[in-house]
Design goal:
Elements (H helix, E strand, L loop, with lengths): L1 H7 L2 H37 L2 H48 L9 H46 L1 H48 L1 H6 L8 H48 L5 H43 L18 E8 L8 E8 L4 E5 L6 H8 L7 E6 L2 E2 L5 H5 L2 E5 L9 H6 L7 H10 L2 H7 L17 H15 L3 E5 L7 H14 L4 E5 L11 E6 L2 E6 L1 H7 L2 H17 L3
Helix pairs in contact: 1-8, 2-3, 2-4, 2-8, 3-4, 4-5, 4-8, 5-7, 5-8, 7-8, 12-14, 14-15
Amino acid sequence: MLTDLFAILDARQRGRMRLYLAWLVLYCFFEAATVLILLPLLEALLRGDGVQTRLWLAILAVMTAATCVLRYIQRMRGFALSLIVLETLHRRLGDHIVCLPIGWFSTERVGRLSRSATSGTMAATNVFAHLLSPIASGILVPAVMVLAMTVLDWRMGLTALLSVPLIYGANRGAAKAIARTDAVVDKAAATASNRVVEFARTQYTLRAFGRGECGYAPLEAAIAAQRDAAGSMLSQTFPKIMAGGLAVQLAFGALVSVGLWLVLHGAIEPVRLVALLALAARFVGPLAEASARAGLLRIARDEIHRLAEIFAAAPLPEPAHPLEPYETGRVTFENVSFGYHTCKPVLTELSLHVPPHGMMAIVGPSGSGKSTLLKLLMRFFDVNAGSISVGGVDVREQSSTALMAQFAPVLQDVYLFDDTLEANIRLGRPDATQEEWREAARIVGVEEIADRLPAGWATRVGEGGSALSGGERQRVSLARAILKKAPIVILDEATASLDIRNEHLVRKAVEHLRHSSTVIVVAHQLPTIMTADQIVVLDGGRVVERGKHFELLEKNGLYATLWQERHRAQGWRLGMP
């Protein structure tokens, strides 16, 4: 656990951590020494030796004061270090996230990332603020006590020493049970978190089909699974945690029994037994405290390990000497093979050439690799074999900033920030003049959206653009793409689920873009790509056809089949009463 934290912190913060640990060890030894003073003090007090009693009382007062000062120093340093760790983890998480390939952000990983950024970072800070001190005390103080009891009476010391494996074994069993069940609980919690977000985002659909008040089966199942996982964790860990506490009490009982046996047989004086039992009480006390915190420390260790796994995720490799593109808008796929899992390829030996300032459409049945192709083009992932070049240069030889500057993606699920309509458009090019962004908005009809909003261009569109319809959000996204003036515009299902008015405006924007940029379109709405300069048909991760619309119809292949199915679907809808 501390090794993981050392790897996460920088050199200066590691120095602070070492200093805190030094103060902690010093405090624990002073605490143990203060307890040891009780032994001669109690013996002097019970024997009625006033001079020795006053002397040991004075020493005890000095040691107690020193221990209090050291406790204050190490606790304050612990709290300060916990805040530094929290700030560092949040900053490093932010810095690391922006370096990861976009393809890393699967739904499951985003859920785990969200949990690690909240509960995980807090668990890490609790190590220094609340856990490490009592646990270190629970280890070092009993160790000194055992040594002292061994010096005073080897039989009492041996009894205390033999009780340590019993206590350790009981708490080790509890720790293993917590680790085993916590992994299940973590997975169930991440799934439930994802289902809650999904439930919130699909309220419109659920209510439209009368499911808004009837529950949502995936969410209910996820919550039930989380509840069952938590119940299983309690049932498996609680008996073992209780066994750990029982082991501590048995250890103290054994020390008392051995001490009484020694007194009855004249092996030690009753005064010495009272003093030793005082040490024994301080021996089991810290062990009990450590036992109570051991489970929390194990959970914190697991959370820190999950954070370390996130930091261990390989960032997108950046070239040491990045090359600049020299053929604006040109895209080439050369024998590209790729699979999310190596045993199941999605694309196989795929080759494509997209000339500048043209429009290429990619069609094919579901699962044929259309969206994967676009993700590889924007380097969400790196190919398993072959190469992809943009602007005449392999995407792996360009910096990620330079590569993404060449793209203006317009996706089906458009996300707008909770900012003004103007700010969401200017995101395409923040330094654009008012005339430039207004012209981009005019081309796709965003002006009419601004005219009906209460504050016009200054109206906030809500989180995700909730104040606008899906078609209106799509038009804002296209305005951003036009404003950016990127060499390559990517449209992934941009016209899906749009009404006639919005689809017309989207097509108009595409026609505008193709004169100044290379436009790559993935679409199920085949009529939107009839005018494409090149249509590529994918099936099973391979290019099976390519050509223009009428050329492909004449071939009577897969594209013709898709076109006929589309026409039959349109005819069915038009024939409905």
